[in-house]
Amino acid sequence: MNYKEFTEYMADLLHKRLGPGYEIKVTQVTKNNDVHLTGVVMMRPCDRISPTIYLEEPYRQYCMGIDIQEIAGRIIDLYREHRREFSPAVNFFREFEKVSDRIMHKVIHYEKNRKLLEDVPHIRWCNLAVVFYYAIEDRAFGKASILIRNEHIRMWDRTAQELYRIAQDNMRRSMPELLVPMTELIEQMTGAKPPRAEEINLYVLTNCEKMYGASAMLYSDKIRELADRLHSDLLILPSSVHEVLLLPDDGEQDYGFYRRMVDEVNTTQVEPEEILSYSLYRYWRERAEIEEIFV
């Protein structure tokens, strides 16, 4: 069966196995970069929130020959594992003072997310957009996030600029930046120091959670410290929404080469919804500013 038939059959199968006490919904979810995924939601009347289980991977398993009954069982197990009673109650989320200390920001590509940005407060930054989310960290629920939408800031009577100032403080406090030499990461992964490591001036900038860490560019002090230590401007390569790469830029770098490298990595190594940008950026040491490089 094709993917559409699979999703419809799976919804029916889940309803039969869970029984009449559940409502099964197949929903389309728009992710970053306008990536559309199909998910299934299983709700009981008492549930305020329920995890969305995406069906792309189960369909791949089905195409590989795994029995569909077994796949349905896996989906139910996953649902029960992640189902929690925690829910950000409406009254709780209405009170800005109760959520303000968990408002964070991330950067996404502006053009690829134009439709999403119509409904989301944001600030334009180079060819990116800074958007905001409420970070959930609950012992039972785990880590998750709620994207802040226009309806939320209207309810709070706040502006995107106010959220930005609050998020900057929260990020510095809760998600401090992390700058690591690439050689150190290679050594951690392989157990061996790369040859001629002292000649590799490549660094990874993220945050301590390594989640949406590319936004560390917005509040980083370590970029300036690195530029001062190397006595150089810095070329910034967008690795993903979770991190960026830094290397010295003396003004004679082959930007075309690095642009092609970013294109290749985005095409072959990064999940579509985690692509940050195809552009290069430069940190100007003298001005302490980051600008997009047009190649």
Describe the 3D structure.
Strand 5 (122-125) and strand 6 (128-138) form a beta hairpin. The protein is globular. The N and C termini lie far apart (45 Å). The protein has 3 domains: 3-82, no CATH class; 90-174, no CATH class; 177-293, no CATH class. The chain is built from 11 helices and 13 strands. It is an alpha+beta fold. Strands 8-9-11-10-12-13 form a 6-stranded antiparallel beta sheet, sandwiched between helices. Residues 85-90 have low confidence and may be disordered. It has helices at residues 3-18, 56-63, 68-82, 90-94, 96-99, 114-117, 150-156, 160-174, 182-190, 222-230, 255-268; strands at residues 23-30, 36-43, 52-54, 103-109, 122-125, 128-138, 142-147, 177-181, 203-207, 233-240, 243-249, 280-284, 289-293.
Present the secondary structure layout.
Layout: H1 3-18, E1 23-30, E2 36-43, E3 52-54, H2 56-63, H3 68-82, H4 90-94, H5 96-99, E4 103-109, H6 114-117, E5 122-125, E6 128-138, E7 142-147, H7 150-156, H8 160-174, E8 177-181, H9 182-190, E9 203-207, H10 222-230, E10 233-240, E11 243-249, H11 255-268, E12 280-284, E13 289-293
Antiparallel strand pairs: 1-2, 2-3, 4-6, 5-6, 6-7, 8-9, 9-11, 10-11, 10-12, 12-13
Helix pairs in contact: 1-3
